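[audit] Reproducing an earlier prediction to check determinism. Same input, same settings, fresh worker. If the C-alpha cells differ from the archived copy the diff job will pick it up downstream; this log only records the rerun itself.
[audit] input (141 residues):
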Amino acid sequence: ELVQDLETILIESTHSHIAFPETLNALKSLSRDYRLAMITNTFQQGFEKLTNTFSIHDYFEIIITSYEEHFVKPDQHLFRTLFQRAGVKAEEILYVGDSVRSDMNPARRLGMQTVLIDRRKRYPQYPRRITSLTQLAELAL
C-alpha cells in the first residue's frame, strides 16, 4: 500500500512539471545542427508524461532512461550505452547536465567534454558553466 501511495505521489507530481522558458527554442535550434541524446534518471510513468507534454522525441535522436537500462546515473553503464548507440567515442561528445555528481563527474571520468547547467549559480568555479541553455551556443566549443 505504501509503494502504491508513493507511486501515486510521483505520477501526480508530473502534472506540475514545466520546461524552463528557453528549453524548447534551444532544443529546436540545437537539433538542427547537432545530434542530440538524452540520459535521464526517471521512472516510466513520469517519462511518458514528459514525452507527451514536450514532444521529446522530436529533438532527441537517442534517449537512454534509467528505468529501461536498470541503472541510474552516475553509473557509467548509461554513458557507455550512449557511446554504443551513437557510434561515437567519449571525446566526441559534449555532455550537458545539471548535476556535478550525477552528470559532470562520470562524463568527465569517461573523457567527455562537459558543460554544467548551473541555473542556481551554486558552482561559479566550474570550468564550463552556463545558467541557461541559450548560452550553449555562445560557448567556444
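[audit] rerun output stored. Observation attached for the diff report: The helical segments are 2-13, 23-33, 44-54, 66-69, 76-86, 100-109.
[audit] end
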